[in-house]
Amino acid sequence: MAPYWAKVCLLIMCFGLTLSSYAGVANAALPPPFRHRIVPKPIPRQKPSVPSIAEGAALFAESCLSCHGPRGNGEGFWILPTGTSAPRLDNLATEDWPAQKIAQVIAKGDGMMPAWGETMTPGQIQSLTLYVESLNQRTVPVPKTETPKLKPQTVLVRMSH
Torsion angle of alpha carbons 83, 85, 86, 91, nearest 10°? Predict the structure, then answer.
């Protein structure tokens, strides 16, 4: 009887090997599983802004007013850690500040002044430069900005070495 069971086991093993070989071929014939393909939408290019004093005034009110004051006179409601207020921007004409220097300070920062070059576009920096220049000229109308009614505050800066 032993040879009979040996034949049956051999037959079952051959049948199993045959099935497993067909399973491998069958899986190879199937296409790979469907994968979603995400195609990013192209980001529409923004129209380059035409530098304007009005845009500069809006940018000034949003980004500069808190330190330099509503008219650029250094009467903002933040006081620098040195205990002084931010520099006046309405007297740059008397200090020989050309537009290129103003734009450079806006873009790269200077001292306690943060750099806005990574945040603002070149057109926005030009608009802000035009507005700051308009603070120094009496002939150019300067748009009025709303000044929030806040008390002066002290900015604490932690510096690590």
Answer: -140
**Token representation of residue 96:** 């020989």
Name the average pLDDT for the chain: 75
Phi and psi torsions of 71, nearest 5°: -115, 15
Which domains does the chain possess? 53-142+150-154 (1.10.760.10)
Q: Provide the residue type at 61 as one letter.
A: A
Find out whether 49 and 124 touch, Cβ atoms under 8 Å. yes
**Residues with Cβ within 8 Å of residue 153, at least 6 apart in sequence:** 77, 78, 79
Tell me which residue has tokens 């007013």. 65
Map tokens 């709303």 to a residue.
146
pLDDT higher than threshold 60 for residue 60: yes
Alpha-carbon distance values, 58 to 19, 55, 81, 135, 143 (Å) = 76, 5, 26, 14, 9
Residue 154 main-chain phi, psi, to 5 deg = -100, 135
CA 47 centroid distance within chain:
18
Mean pLDDT throughout 112-127?
88
